[in-house]
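User: Reviewer 2 asked us to show a designed sequence for the structure in our supplementary figure. I'm pasting the structure tokens here. Could you produce the per-position amino acids so we can include them in the response letter?
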């Protein structure tokens, strides 16, 4: 009985430590989500006290809204390309800078520094780079390279992808470096004794042992790409035309600028649903491939 009483007291003490966190999480996340779902069922303009009931009409309206559809298509395209490119580059840099390269700590620092810059500042920097700095090289070198990537709907996506890689590759690279450094050296020594080539060692040892880091990076980059917003605000403003309008940018334009808070809330709920589904699917698929040490 004394052990049981002590165990219950310990459990209560641990549970009490969770109360502040649960309270803040509920107030900051759960309650706003519930309110957002309620507002998505209304045609509220975000300013008046009237909350006209709209039911599921906002969700049906989204399917017929060309602006919302184009925003989703751009966001999904950006997400897929950014996730693939950023993971590949981060892993490649991690492998190179985890080897016996002189000055590798300096190179890691150089790659990591851009992620300390706010995305909205990074967008403004590259707006000036594409419009002023890089085009000046054409006059200097006598070339005719099109550096004005934000000026055309055909090149704005590659331009944004370049900026995003510049800013975030170093961050995810460090996660891969940490994963590489946790792999036992003995595995590579045994593989070399067996005559395994570097390529075979990478495919049979490095990638499987990096599975936890791959899970973190893939899910993190995917979720971040689906929520991209700051970069567009200072660089393209969703243009040219609507060629770089992400779904969050469209939500802002609809709910705040367009005073359609109920419709904007419906878009937000759709985004939250997509984020949850994508994260659950990715975690489920990637966790099964992880190697437990």
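Assistant: Here is a per-position design you can include in the supplement:
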């Amino acid at each position: 009985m004394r052990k049981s009483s002590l165990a219950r007291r310990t459990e209560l003490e641990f549970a009490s430590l969770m109360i502040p966190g649960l309270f803040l999480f509920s107030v900051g996340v759960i309650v706003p989500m519930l309110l957002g779902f309620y507002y998505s069922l209304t045609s509220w303009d975000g300013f008046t006290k009237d909350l006209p009931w709209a039911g599921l009409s906002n969700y049906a309206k989204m399917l017929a809204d060309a602006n919302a559809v184009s925003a989703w298509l751009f966001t999904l395209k950006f997400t897929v390309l950014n996730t693939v490119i950023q993971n590949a580059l981060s892993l490649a840099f991690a492998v190179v800078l985890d080897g016996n390269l002189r000055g590798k700590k300096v190179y890691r620092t150089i790659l990591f520094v851009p992620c300390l810059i706010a995305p909205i500042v990074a967008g403004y920097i590259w707006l000036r780079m594409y419009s002023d700095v890089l085009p000046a090289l054409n006059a200097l070198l006598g070339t005719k390279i099109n550096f004005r990537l934000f000026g055309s709907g055909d090149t704005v996506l590659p331009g944004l992808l370049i900026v995003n890689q510049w800013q975030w590759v170093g961050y995810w690279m460090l996660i891969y470096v940490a994963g590489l450094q946790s792999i036992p050296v003995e595995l590579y020594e045994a593989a070399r004794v067996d005559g395994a080539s570097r390529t075979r060692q990478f495919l049979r040892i490095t990638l499987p042992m990096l599975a936890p880091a791959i899970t973190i990076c893939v899910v993190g980059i995917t979720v971040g790409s689906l929520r991209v917003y700051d970069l567009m605000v200072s660089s393209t403003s969703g243009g040219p035309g609507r060629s770089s309008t992400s779904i969050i940018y469209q939500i802002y334009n609809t709910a705040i600028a367009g005073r359609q808070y109920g419709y904007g809330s419906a878009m937000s709920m759709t985004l939250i649903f997509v984020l949850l589904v994508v994260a659950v699917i990715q975690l489920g698929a990637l966790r099964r491939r992880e190697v437990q040490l």
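For the response letter, you might also mention the following. The mean pLDDT is 92. The chain has twelve helices and no strands.
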